[in-house]
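FAQ

Q: What does a record look like?
A: Structure on top, sequence underneath. For example:
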């Protein structure tokens, strides 16, 4: 009988005028931290979050009731296998200019941006330049073509440091993945429940915030594969 109380599954929300929205794929939001929710099948999800100094991840069942999203994390004693660290995604464009652009996006292994990460460029043994990523985990450098090869080093509280060597005199757009530090990465597998208040829902966007929160609604945008 208790299942009769669940009016709608998460992945199908019927609006008052009869339109249905089916959520499939991964949605992510960046704030002072970040969250990613991947909707799979009829009512399953995978969740990853990074909150300045620690990260969380988990999976379970999900649904929407009365404009609230419920994430019911599974209860299990088994440990989730640690994922292999994803390889950096590198896009190169040729350039004849003396100044090259290096754009780096720092994300965790679930593709969640890591805001305010430290990014450092090493040129030789002594020359170094550094900056801090913005709220979306992005940092941009302008470097001289003759500076290559260079080494990119990234770091932040709660993640393992990143490392990448670049040799060619090209413009680069790079997404660099990082594994969360085991000391601050928490697995949600004790039946936890996350509840979000929904303000808007479309195929490409979920506007929502944690229940009983006074913060602005967060934009969870659908990510392209």
């Amino acid at each position: 009988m208790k299942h009769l109380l669940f009016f709608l599954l998460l992945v199908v929300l019927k609006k008052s005028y009869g339109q249905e929205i089916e959520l499939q794929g991964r949605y992510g939001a960046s704030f002072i931290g970040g969250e990613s929710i991947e909707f799979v099948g009829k009512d399953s999800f995978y969740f990853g979050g990074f909150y300045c100094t620690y990260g969380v991840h988990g999976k379970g069942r999900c649904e929407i009731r009365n404009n609230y999203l419920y994430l019911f994390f599974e209860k299990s004693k088994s440990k989730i296998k640690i994922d292999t660290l994803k390889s950096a995604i590198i896009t190169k464009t040729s350039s004849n200019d003396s100044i090259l652009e290096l754009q780096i996006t720092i994300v965790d292994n679930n593709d969640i941006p890591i805001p305010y990460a430290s990014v450092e460029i090493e040129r030789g043994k002594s020359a170094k330049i550094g900056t801090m990523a913005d709220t979306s985990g992005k940092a941009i450098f302008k470097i001289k073509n003759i500076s290559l090869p260079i080494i990119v080093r990234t770091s932040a509280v709660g993640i393992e440091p990143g490392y990448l060597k670049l040799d060619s005199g090209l413009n680069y757009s790079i997404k660099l993945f990082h594994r969360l530090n085991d000391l601050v990465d928490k697995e949600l597998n004790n039946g936890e429940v996350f509840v979000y208040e929904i303000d808007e829902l479309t195929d490409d966007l979920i506007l929502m915030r944690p229940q009983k929160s006074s913060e602005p609604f967060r934009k969870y945008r659908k990510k392209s594969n």
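Q: Is there anything notable about this one?
A: The domain at 2-79+183-222 is CATH 2.40.128 (Lipocalin).
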